[in-house]
Design a protein that fits this description.
Blueprint: H1 6-30, H2 43-54, H3 58-70, H4 73-100, H5 107-115, H6 117-148, H7 159-179, H8 181-211, H9 229-242, H10 259-288, H11 291-296, H12 300-308, H13 315-335
Helix pairs in contact: 2-8, 2-10, 2-13, 3-4, 3-9, 4-9, 4-10, 5-6, 6-7, 6-13, 7-8, 7-13, 8-10, 8-13
C-alpha cells in the first residue's frame, strides 16, 4: 500500500537503531580490556628499584672472576669502570625509549612499535618462561646459600636445605608483590637501604685502611696484565653480570609519577651511584687482600669481613643475604609487568 504509513516507518527505524546498539555492545564486549596501572612510584622508589635490582650477589662474587681474567689490579679496576659506563649508556638509550613510548613491559612495547607483534611476542614468551624465572631462581638460591652458611660452619649446607629456603623465598616474594604494588615498593626500599649499609661499611673500612698506608697491593698494579681479546671479553662478561638490572625501571614506566622526568633522572642518579660503589668496593677488597688471596677466596665479601670486621664479621653474610633478596624482589616486581 503506497504511500507507507508514518508509524510503521518509525518502528522500522527504531528497531534498526536498537539492533545497531546491540551490535556495538557485543563488539565492545569481545574487545580486549586494558588495565590502568596506578601511578604510585616516585623518584626515590625508582632509584631504589634500579640500585636494588643491580646490586645483588654479583659485586660480592664477581671481583674474583674479573681478576682471574685480567691478572692485575689496575686493569681490573678499569674493567669495572668501563662496565659501569656501558651500563649507563644502555640505560640512557632505554630512558629515551621510555619517554617516547610510555608503556610498561620493558622491551616488549619497543619491539612491538619497531618490528611488529611476532618479535615482541617471542621476546615476551622468552622473558616470561625462561629469562625472568631462571634469574629469579638463581638469586633466591644465592640468598639461601648465604642464609644457611652460618648454621653449617666448616661444611657446605645440604642441597635440600638450600632448595627449600629458596622455594620459601620465592613464595614469600611472589605473595608480597601479588598483594600490593605499594607493599612491594616498600619492601624494595627497605632492602635497598639494608644493602647500602653493608656497601658503605665495606667502602669506609677499606678507605680507612688505605689512608693508614696499606697501599702495597696497588704498587705495580699493571704488572702481569693479560691483554688477550678472550681474557678482556670474559672480564667484561663477568663485570657486566654484576651490572645486570639497569633496564628494569622501564618495565614499570606506567606506574611512575611523571615518567618524563623521573625515569631519566632515576637512571642518571642510580647507575653512576652503583658504578662508584663498585669501584670503591674493589679498592677496599684490594686494600685488605692480595690478588692471590682474593682469587683463593670463595666469597670475597665474607673474607673481607673476617679480616676487617671480626668479631662482628657475621653481619657481612647477613647483609649480603638482604642484598640478594632485595634483587630477587626487584626482579619479581618488574617481571609481573611483561606484556
Amino acid at each position: 500500500m503506497w504511500p507507507p504509513r508514518i508509524g510503521s516507518g518509525w518502528k522500522m527505524e527504531e528497531t534498526s537503531l536498537r539492533k545497531r546498539r546491540e551490535d556495538e555492545k557485543s563488539i565492545q564486549s569481545i574487545e580486549p580490556k586494558t588495565t590502568n596501572l596506578q601511578k604510585e612510584l616516585g623518584l626515590f622508589s625508582g632509584i631504589c628499584i634500579i640500585v636494588g635490582t643491580i646490586i645483588g650477589s654479583g659485586i660480592f662474587i664477581s671481583p674474583k672472576s674479573v681478576l682471574s681474567n685480567m691478572e692485575a689490579v689496575g686493569p681490573c679496576l678499569i674493567i669495572w669502570a668501563a662496565c659501569g659506563i656501558l651500563a649507563t649508556l644502555g640505560a640512557l638509550c632505554f630512558a629515551e625509549l621510555g619517554t617516547m613510548i610510555t608503556k610498561s613491559g620493558g622491551e616488549y612495547p619497543y619491539l612491538m612499535e619497531a618490528f611488529g607483534p611476532i618479535p615482541a611476542f617471542l621476546f615476551s614468551w622468552t622473558s616470561l618462561f625462561v629469562i625472568k624465572p631462571s634469574s629469579f631462581a638463581i638469586i633466591c638460591l644465592s640468598f639461601s646459600e648465604y642464609v644457611s652458611a652460618p648454621f653449617y660452619s666448616g661444611c657446605n649446607p645440604p642441597q635440600v636445605v638450600i632448595k627449600l629456603l629458596a622455594a620459601a623465598a620465592i613464595l614469600l616474594i611472589t605473595t608480597v608483590n601479588a598483594l600490593s604494588v605499594r607493599l612491594g615498593s616498600y619492601v624494595q626500599n627497605v632492602f635497598t637501604a639494608a644493602k647500602m649499609v653493608i656497601v658503605v661499611v665495606i667502602i669506609i673500612s677499606g678507605l680507612v685502611l688505605l689512608a693508614q698506608g696499606n697501599t702495597r697491593n696497588f704498587e705495580n698494579s699493571f704488572e702481569g696484565t693479560k691483554l688477550s681479546l678472550g681474557a678482556i671479553g670474559l672480564a667484561f662478561y663477568n663485570g657486566l653480570w654484576a651490572y645486570d638490572g639497569w633496564n628494569q625501571l622501564n618495565y614499570i614506566t606506567e606506574e611512575l609519577r611523571n615518567p618524563f622526568r623521573n625515569l631519566p633522572l632515576a637512571i642518571i642518579i642510580g647507575i653512576p651511584l652503583v658504578t662508584g660503589c663498585y669501584i670503591l668496593m674493589n679498592v677496599s677488597y684490594f686494600t685488605v687482600m692480595t690478588a692471590t688471596e682474593l682469587l683463593q677466596s670463595q666469597a670475597v665479601a665474607v673474607t673481607f669481613g673476617d679480616r676487617v670486621l671480626y668479631p662482628a664479621s657475621w653481619v657481612v653474610p647477613l647483609f649480603v643475604a638482604f642484598s640478594t633478596i632485595g634483587a630477587a624482589n626487584g626482579t619479581c616486581f618488574t617481571a609481573g609487568r611483561v606484556s
